Amino acid sequence: MAHVSIIGTGNMGQAIAGIAGKGPHTVQLIGEDDKGTAVTGDVVVLAIPYGAIRSVIAERGDELKGKVVVDISNPLDFETFDSLLVPADGSAAAEVASALPDSKVLKAFNTTFAATLASGAVGDNTTTVLIAGDDANAKATLADIVTGGGLRAIDAGSLKRARELEAIGFLQLTLGASEKVSWTGGFAVVV
């Protein structure tokens, strides 16, 4: 059983809390107004926009030491919807890992929409959460949380794969924003 702290109470934070709450795990939701609330989870999900990550790490970096930290962000330029805001050889998750060297950083949940996380389905397929990271135990812990919530989890490789996951998230978001795919749809992994 894991204790999951989710920083961010928007659609994604709520959907991930619902997933974690279906299993034997406990969930702590921390919103913007909860600055004095300590992070108590051994797994911490940063369910916040890319632009807010630096300030959250500055405020809570000490609290995140030794924890599994899950970055769900897509570093998309939301003004133009035409590029990622990280270098071509980097990722938001790599930036998080660099800022939190004493944490086990994972990339996950960024290739799904909140609606498909909450419903557990993309069309006729079970929603799949792709997980990238360098710590096998951390990935297994997150996979247990995901599968305990009724979804499928796939190990997508090392944290270096975060760049590709962010590219998939970027494409899916731009398709959703241009109404070429539904926010209740998106990409599915068929196994």
SSE diagram, text form:
Elements (H helix, E strand, L loop, with lengths): L2 E5 L3 H12 L3 E5 L12 E4 L6 H8 L7 E4 L20 H8 L4 E4 L6 H6 L1 E2 L2 E2 L1 E6 L2 H13 L3 E6 L4 H16 L14
Parallel strand pairs: 1-2, 1-3, 3-4, 4-5, 8-9
Antiparallel strand pairs: 5-8, 6-7
Keywords: Oxidoreductase
Organism: Nocardioides massiliensis
InterPro entries: NAD(P)-bd_dom_sf, P5C_Rdtase_cat_N, STEAP_metalloreductase
Description of the structure:
By secondary structure, the chain is an alpha/beta fold. It has one domain: Rossmann fold, CATH 3.40.50. Helix content is 33%, strand content 20%. It is built from 6 helices and 9 strands; from the N terminus they run βαββαβαβαβββαβα. It has a 7-stranded mixed sheet with strand order 2-1-3-4-5-8-9, sandwiched between helices. It has a two-stranded antiparallel ribbon with strand order 6-7. Helix 3 (92-99) links the parallel strand 4 (68-71) and strand 5. The longest helix is centred in the last third of the chain and has 16 residues, at 162-177. It is globular. Residues 37-75 form the Pyrroline-5-carboxylate reductase catalytic N-terminal domain. InterPro entries: NAD(P)-bd_dom_sf, P5C_Rdtase_cat_N, STEAP_metalloreductase. Keywords: Oxidoreductase. It comes from Nocardioides massiliensis. It holds the Pfam family F420_oxidored.
